[in-house]
């Protein structure tokens, strides 16, 4: 493995560690306040997908994907179903809260803490959920641009 590939691999590892740290920071207040968090899987997926796709959108030429045309085509095709899966996750969360209210999850908390954690959860779930729903088609556009540039200009 040459030096450039090694640096790209280290950059990827550093970004994965930073993503994990952000994920822990986002989930810590929820785990501290609640006994059960039924949307933990969706929450983790929203954060990881938004951070990873945003990174690839802006830093494509510095990643291992820059020259992998077949991988870019496969990811491009996966972004369409991923968009709808993320939208479905946001919808599932919003419908659950609207139909069941917050009481099954936050009913055990004092009133002041209850309101604060509900606002935090609502804001972060919508931010990361909608962000991941938007990042997927934006990443698809970026992949198309990268494929075109690599094929016609020789750049990422």
Task: Provide structural commentary.
There is one protein chain. This protein is an all-alpha fold and 156 residues long. It has one domain. The chain is built from 5 helices and no strands. Helix 1 packs antiparallel against helix 5. The two termini are 20 Å apart. The model has no long low-confidence stretch (mean pLDDT 91).
Task: Summarize the structure in short.
This protein is 82% helix and 0% strand. It is built from five helices and no strands.
Share in β-strands: under 5%
Could you describe the largest sheet, including whether it forms a barrel?
none
| Element pattern in H and E | HHHHH
Domain unit count: 1
Overall geometric form = elongated
Name the helicity range: over 70%
Topology of this structure?
Elements: H1 3-33, H2 40-58, H3 69-100, H4 103-106, H5 111-152
Helix pairs in contact: 1-2, 1-5, 2-5, 3-5
